[in-house]
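Quick one, probably user error.
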């Protein structure tokens, strides 16, 4: 089953010394080596976001993030896992789980409505 893993950062989080978080390059190498991580990328900061809406046939643009939250999407990965338990195990190993937030969303199967 495929999962979208949203990697979110909390800009107010400041680790105190060595918090024990793993290195992101080690995480990428492990998940790529196991064939779990199909792709992933960092994204520009929320301040570079553009929100697009259409209301009454008019395109409305807003600079910056749409949602007012302290957590911002820093990147994403697409995972291929046997089930949610495996996806959680993979996400828990990601360094951002130690000081940010990891959100997992299963892909909607093409054969379901």
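Nope, works fine. Designed sequence:
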């Amino acid at each position: 089953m495929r999962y979208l893993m949203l990697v979110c950062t909390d800009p107010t989080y400041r680790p105190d010394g060595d918090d024990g978080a793993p290195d992101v390059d080690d995480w990428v190498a492990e998940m790529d080596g196991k064939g779990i991580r199909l792709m992933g990328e960092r994204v520009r900061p929320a301040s570079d976001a553009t929100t697009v809406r259409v209301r009454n046939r008019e395109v409305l643009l807003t600079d910056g993030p749409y949602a007012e939250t302290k957590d911002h999407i820093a990147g994403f990965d697409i995972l291929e896992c046997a089930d949610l338990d495996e996806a959680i195990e993979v996400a828990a190993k990601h360094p951002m789980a130690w000081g940010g937030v990891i959100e997992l969303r299963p892909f909607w199967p093409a054969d379901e409505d």
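Residues 2-106 form a domain with the Alpha-Beta Plaits fold (CATH 3.30.70.1060).
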